[in-house]
Design brief:
86 residues, two-stranded parallel sheet, 20% helix
Length: 86
């Protein structure tokens, strides 16, 4: 079964991912100033478990998660931004 294309949009303080009529809001953090990392955003992977309501009962499986992360990284790169998945 083919998956629908993932659409990624950046909002203030979050990244929104849309796929198959579902939405995922990923909250971002600024990198720790003392870490010395050259990244614009940090995303905590352990916070990504389910889709937003009304699909909050549907877990995001590992294959979907990988596609989501790839799409997010690609979209941010288009804007000259980088993300670190922690």
């Amino acid at each position: 079964m083919a998956r629908a294309k993932i659409k990624v949009e950046m909002t203030e303080g979050a990244i929104r991912v849309h796929q198959d009529g579902r939405t995922l809001t990923i909250h971002t953090e600024a990198p720790d100033a003392q870490s010395g990392e050259e990244t614009d955003f940090v995303v905590r992977l352990d916070e990504i478990e389910t889709w937003d309501a009304p699909n909050h009962d549907k877990e995001i499986d590992i294959d979907d998660l990988q596609r989501i992360l790839d799409a997010v990284e690609k979209e941010l790169a288009k804007h000259g931004l980088t993300v670190d998945f922690d």
